[in-house]
Amino acid sequence: MESAEQVQQSVRSGRITAAMVAARAGVSTATVSLVANGKTAGRVSEDNIARVRDAISELGYVVDGIGSSLAKGVSSIVILVSPDISNPFFAKVIAGVRESLGADYQLLLSVTPAGEFPQAGDVRKLMALRPAGLLVGAPNAEFLDDLSAAGPVVLLDAPGLEAYAPSVNLDVAHGARQLAAHLADTGHRRVAYVDSVTGTATFAIRRGAFLDEAAAHGIAVEPGHIISTTIDVGASAAAFAAAWPAWQQAGVTAVVCCTDTHAYGVLQEARVAGVQIPDELAIAGFDDLPYSATSNPSLTSVHLPATSLGLKAGGQLRRLIEGHRLEQPQLTLESSLVVRNSTSA
Amino acid sequence: MESAEQVQQSVRSGRITAAMVAARAGVSTATVSLVANGKTAGRVSEDNIARVRDAISELGYVVDGIGSSLAKGVSSIVILVSPDISNPFFAKVIAGVRESLGADYQLLLSVTPAGEFPQAGDVRKLMALRPAGLLVGAPNAEFLDDLSAAGPVVLLDAPGLEAYAPSVNLDVAHGARQLAAHLADTGHRRVAYVDSVTGTATFAIRRGAFLDEAAAHGIAVEPGHIISTTIDVGASAAAFAAAWPAWQQAGVTAVVCCTDTHAYGVLQEARVAGVQIPDELAIAGFDDLPYSATSNPSLTSVHLPATSLGLKAGGQLRRLIEGHRLEQPQLTLESSLVVRNSTSA
DNA sequence: CTGAAAGCGCTTACAG
DNA sequence: CTGAAAGCGCTTACAG
């Protein structure tokens, strides 16, 4: 039982506390806690369970997250950190994460300016929330070195970084190679590449796999024909506009972009410049965003399973948080090329 | 000073606590708290301030968010609730919110299945995190009635709901009227409308303003020519495919969609069906997403200032959280029509 | 099966 | 200007 004054005080604050539930049910707060957390097995009588349940629903009691977190040493918050969180690709990833995490965990997104990772100080502030777990999207080694997070971590789309933590990867190399082969088949011999400034592993692999396979097919991608911009339609459009005259002169007939968002910018600017697509210039991207089917022309893209990525990563993290071992700490999801009109009329 | 055992225990957990800082600086935890929170004015000697600062940086101390929140009664988390959070429109809103909130507050997104508001139970769980404030996007009255949140709240894009809380609105009606006038000018007399299933106020206003102005211009929008889907390219495409034969027979020559995302679906399906755009069918949307300039054909849309919406809303909330009064509790941002090829060849 | 008590890490009157 | 102490709301050994 709690003291009458204590209960009275909580009443005034408007917040329903465990003490109020305890007073109403005629038990201790310890019992309330046990019932509210479903830890009654062999520890609380049926009678008291019913009593407490009734009091909880009558009062509309919800366990206070802050008090609970402090006592447990960890909160129910899962933090998702990614340099690319406002890309529409991530909307689906987030939906997948949310679904697999269920109602017991809250999703906190670390939002940074496009393409940037949070600074060390930001991360520490996030850690001060004592997250139940951490999801890190498309990281680079440097960021992971700085991270030093205690507790469960799962990486998303982090090829080559499996040593740091369990991860769910996308086989972007496969799609990249398909794309190189497709361009070779359609007669391209000089190709430009628009990369991201992020410098994360997934982009390095996309580029590396594409360049390797391109070379194997006799396609030339000169160093001067590789540029980088943030993941932003406008930035990409501007960069392409600046580069195109030289590329055109050098005989470039195709541009591969590391994301569809980049590709939309190139598409936009190429159309403004009156470039014929795909006859004069073929364009392709990665991600296969929902808009790539309706762009003008529709965009050839390496399809990546975003929802599935979120679902799997959330599921793995949840297992980790709940103390299970992962049967498969490394998962890889398939990618594949979707050919549309921007490379093949 | 803290007891040696206490400090020793914290050392073992790996977490740097105020007690450890206090021990190192030779002061009490109260002084550490004052310094860490910048509340030293007239309360801590210069000498001790320097001592504590040194200890903080030497140890890498970060105030524990959970402990701090419990003591203060409120956390540094700002929750953003919106039925439409994975729409690319919201990516910019989120970026704006993040920027105006600054580094002192963490943004927690309540992610629900497309177009749905969180259930009452979900909201209560979020409230148990004791948020510093709440941002509610595109709400309906029912949700706000249920909400009963204590503490600062700012509504985004909530026309007609100004009575509930300070809000930042978009003058969607203005753009909607411009769109109706534009369609009338280009000769359309029978128009269909694709609405959202969400039933939120902003969509009701978009539709209402459009229908009113359309009627004033002699445009007929029959009740049977108004359909609703979730904010999803595929759902919208399917709904349009089902509706189009009847619309075509009835002489419909234009479709207005309540979001660009809906419009992309209509565009996609219309092209598959071989419908000539805009000659046979004009299509327009709301939001002016970045992809609307590159779609095929490019999409006429009512431009809404997403980044600015987030910036203003975050700014208002921050002022509220910090105890200031709002000089202008109601803000309205402009919208305007951007005409592109989907309505005008 | 049950409750009193300690403790999670911090902040804030309070007394000095 | 400073520190001891109470308190935020909960959970968890512990003793019974």
What does this structure look like?
The structure is a homodimer of 345-residue chains. Chain A is α/β, with parallel strands linked by helices. Chain A folds into three domains: 4-63, 434 Repressor (Amino-terminal Domain), CATH 1.10.260; 72-169 and 306-333, 3-Layer(aba) Sandwich (Rossmann fold); 172-305, Response regulator (Rossmann fold). Chain A contains 13 helices and twelve strands. Chain A has a six-stranded parallel sheet with strand order 2-1-3-4-5-11, with helices on one face. Chain A has a six-stranded mixed sheet with strand order 7-6-8-9-10-12. In chain A, strand 8 (254-257), helix 12 (260-272) and strand 9 form a beta-alpha-beta unit. Chain A is elongated, with a radius of gyration of 26 Å. The mean pLDDT of chain A is 90. Chains A and B meet through helix 5, helix 6, strand 2, helix 7 and helix 12 of A and helix 5, helix 6, strand 2, helix 7 and helix 12 of B. Chain A binds a DNA duplex (16 and 16 nucleotides) through helix 3 and helix 5. Chains A, B: Residues 16-72 form the HTH lacI-type domain. Chains A, B: It comes from Pseudarthrobacter sulfonivorans. Chains A, B: This is LacI family transcriptional regulator. Chains A, B: GO terms for molecular function: DNA-binding transcription factor activity; transcription cis-regulatory region binding. Chains A, B: It holds the Pfam family Peripla_BP_3.
